[in-house]
């Protein structure tokens, strides 16, 4: 992912799109097969069509990785801003007000990061690759320390 970020980002987008297309076709077929409950049928077919559309979009038109990362950051950022604003308005204790202001500012920072993630898909792929390397090194270190602990028990 770090060495070929453009290829890996496109490959992940195609994989997400393909799995959404498969899920959409499966949901549509389940909606057609199970006609005993009309609510399940309509909901299943609707979810299947939406999944099919997003799958095709991710496979052919849109890079899924930066879109999903930025969407997640937007949701978290706006929720933190809303939560911080509620705390600023309604909480009377000074330390909770300070925490609410920090939450509001962090929400603004996360929304800015969402804009950055949407505009720079290569950097999102590189960031994910670096985080995977760090996690692998951490798991390697933890695994070796666990084997040392087992020897001394």
Structural class: mainly alpha
What is the global morphology? extended
Weakly predicted, low-confidence segments: none
- The portion of residues assigned to helices is over 70%
Query: Overall mean pLDDT score?
Result: 82
Can you walk me through this structure?
By secondary structure, this protein is mainly α. The protein contains 5 helices and no strands. The mean pLDDT is 82.
Layout of strands and helices, then pairs:
Blueprint: H1 5-33, H2 38-60, H3 64-90, H4 94-119, H5 121-152
Looking at this protein, list some descriptive labels.
153 residues; mainly alpha; 5 helices
Short overview:
With 153 residues, the chain is mainly α. Helices cover 90% and strands 0% of the residues.
């Amino acid at each position: 992912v770090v060495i070929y970020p453009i290829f890996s980002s496109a490959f992940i987008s195609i994989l997400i799109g393909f799995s959404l297309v498969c899920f959409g076709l499966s949901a549509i077929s389940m909606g057609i097969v199970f006609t005993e409950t009309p609510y399940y049928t309509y909901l299943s077919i609707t979810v299947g069509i939406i999944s099919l559309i997003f799958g095709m979009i991710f496979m052919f038109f849109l890079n899924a990785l930066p879109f999903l990362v930025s969407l997640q950051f937007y949701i978290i950022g706006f929720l933190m801003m809303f939560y911080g604003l509620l705390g600023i308005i309604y909480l009377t204790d000074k330390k909770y007000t300070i925490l609410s202001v920090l939450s509001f500012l962090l929400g603004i920072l996360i929304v800015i990061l969402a804009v950055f993630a949407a505009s720079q898909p290569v950097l999102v792929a590189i960031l994910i690759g670096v985080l995977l390397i760090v996690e692998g090194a951490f798991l390697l270190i933890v695994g070796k320390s666990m084997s040392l602990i087992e020897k001394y028990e």
